[in-house]
Amino acid sequence: MIAIRTDRLILRRFRPDDAADLFAYRHRPRARCFLSSRLDTPADAEAEAERRASNDEHVAVCLTASGRLIGDLFCLPEPPVTFSVGWNFNAAYGGAGYAHEAAAALFGHLFSERQARRLYASVEEDNAASHRLCATLGMRLEGLFREFVSFVNDDQGNPIFENTMQYAILRREWAERSARG
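Given the sequence above, the corresponding structure tokens read:
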């Protein structure tokens, strides 16, 4: 992946030296959907940063001024021209619009450079921040999947199933939105 620059951010491929910053926000994930990929030790973070450096499915989001990794985006291809997208950011950098800035830049790249036709995101029903982000990116709510997936178990070891919402945007919708400014 080529680096994508915005006013405040650089989106780039992961590097092994991103491990410490990756550990900072993946050690205690805020969203339940990331619990299964929680990083328990710095060594786990080193292995994960190395794995992510080998492909373009995860995009490192870094501050331009310092180069510090503050979060990541993912764009998982579903041939021929669809991508599943998502985001995970360090809570210490929340509320500054970084997630929107990064996701908008990635969406533009996926539609123009990778010729995506459709992008979609799956969001837990109670993840208000991600619902707002999907809306500000121009994604439309496509549906609610009741008791769709489980990320945690109850005290007896039984799965607790989550309601999941799906949002999507088509390339033509993105182009129309971009043309309006």
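The helical segments are 19-26, 42-52, 98-112, 128-136, 171-180. Try to locate this feature in the token string yourself.
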